[in-house]
Design a protein that fits this description.
This protein has 388 residues and is mainly α. The protein contains 19 helices and two strands. It has one domain (2-382). Helix content is 71%, strand content 2%.
């Protein structure tokens, strides 16, 4: 038996025929999945470091980690790095001031944050959703110094508290998420939609007063975003510093959805990246991630989950109107409604015995593929291959 809540924060219990889940303590199941998945990825990191003659810091310090470390030590000396929000670099700077290796400290912070994110999913949608998130293919980004784990911990708990009608805490967690990445702005908008859906579902006679209180709390994360924008303006004198950094550093700018898809498909050809097949494959996976995001958005709309529809949908729009799809596969980690939908699939049971057996085999196969994908993704990152 697993517990979920609707957007009004009302508990809903789903009974499944999966006896293993019914017999297992939900927290224990999530804990074991957390330990096993993190141990497997850590082992891959150690093996990669030994094989390449690197230290663990080097193995865990590829790609954007270098940007976060430079910001922590030098500030925004390189203006293209203003594309990265200051939350994680400030934590790394604190570690550096205490003489703690920044990369290893960042790994520890991400590990702890990923556990709290999983606990939020457990509260929101039950153990299967949390476990599926922990073994998601790009899960390696939740155990290295990237913002995914910290953001997910803050955003997931913001959503959980908002659904429980604890908007003060929800706004606080949302404000924390806004120090980490631009997705905090999307979370702010989705929380606004959630507030509207709660009024509609509860049919509160004092709906206007309740709505105004929730909107007032949402000024807190908006203030954090405004503060960063004011800081960037004081640094450069421009109100478009963040957008300019996206364009100059990562060739990202607003474009039409069809042109964005076309460019991403072109980037998925091996001839586009001579000698770098990993990049071409990853761009193909970006297209798959966008298809998954679009499907999740439509299902949330069909199920009348207004806030969750907005949360996934705004990401799909943002990626779909960029120069090409970059990091959409990593953003899958942020789409908590997706893991609710996947968990629903695992608990659905056909009435026909033969169909039931086939369906369970497909579920087991899907979980195995996800876990294998998680290991492959970890190997790519720890070996410095392109991994979105």
């Amino acid at each position: 038996m697993s517990q979920t809540t609707n957007e009004a924060g009302e508990a809903q219990v789903t009974v499944t025929s999966d006896s293993a889940i019914r017999r297992t303590n939900p927290l224990l199941l999530v804990g074991l999945t957390f330990i096993a998945s993190r141990a497997m990825m850590a082992l891959i990191g150690v093996i990669s470091a030994v094989h390449n003659g690197d230290t663990l810091e080097v193995a865990a310090g590829h790609w954007d980690v270098g940007h976060f470390v430079r910001i922590a030590t030098d500030g925004y000396a390189d203006l293209t790095e203003t594309a990265f929000f200051p939350g994680l670099p400030l934590l790394l700077r604190l570690a550096n001031s205490l003489g703690i290796p920044m990369v290893l400290f960042g790994c520890l912070v991400s590990m702890v944050a990923s556990w709290f994110a999983a606990l939020a999913l457990l509260r929101l949608y039950g153990p299967m959703a949390a476990c599926l998130w922990l073994i998601a293919p790009p899960a390696v980004f939740t155990m290295i110094p990237y913002t995914e784990a910290l953001f997910c911990a803050a955003a997931f708990w913001a959503w959980e508290r908002a659904k429980a009608d604890r908007w003060g805490w929800a706004a606080t967690f949302a404000a924390l998420s806004c120090t980490l990445r631009i997705s905090g702005l999307f979370l702010w908008g989705a929380l606004g939609l959630l507030a509207i859906s709660q009024i509609r579902l509860k049919n509160d006679p004092d709906w206007l007063g309740g709505f105004c209180k929730k909107v007032a709390w949402l000024l807190l994360p908006l203030a954090v975003l405004g503060g960063y924008e004011l800081y960037l303006h004081s640094l450069t004198g421009s109100w478009t510093t963040w957008l300019d950094a996206q364009q100059s550093g990562w060739a990202r700018s607003f474009t039409s959805p069809w042109r964005s898809l076309q460019r991403t498909l072109e980037a998925g050809h091996f001839a586009y990246w001579p000698g770098r097949p990993d990049v071409a494959i990853m761009f193909r996976i970006e297209v798959l991630a966008m298809a998954i995001g679009l499907a999740a958005t439509l299902i949330c709309a069909w199920q009348k989950r207004l806030g969750e529809f907005g949360w996934v949908g705004i990401h799909v729009i943002a990626f779909g109107t960029s120069t090409w799809y970059i990091s959409a596969s990593r953003a899958v980690l942020l789409w908590f409604p997706l893991y609710s939908l996947l968990a629903q699939l695992t608990t659905w049971t056909p009435k026909n015995p033969r169909a039931k057996l086939c369906w369970r085999c497909l579920i087991v196969l899907g979980i195995a593929i996800s876990a294998i994908g998680m290991c492959i993704w970890a190997w790519l990152f720890f070996n410095g291959k392109w991994s979105s």
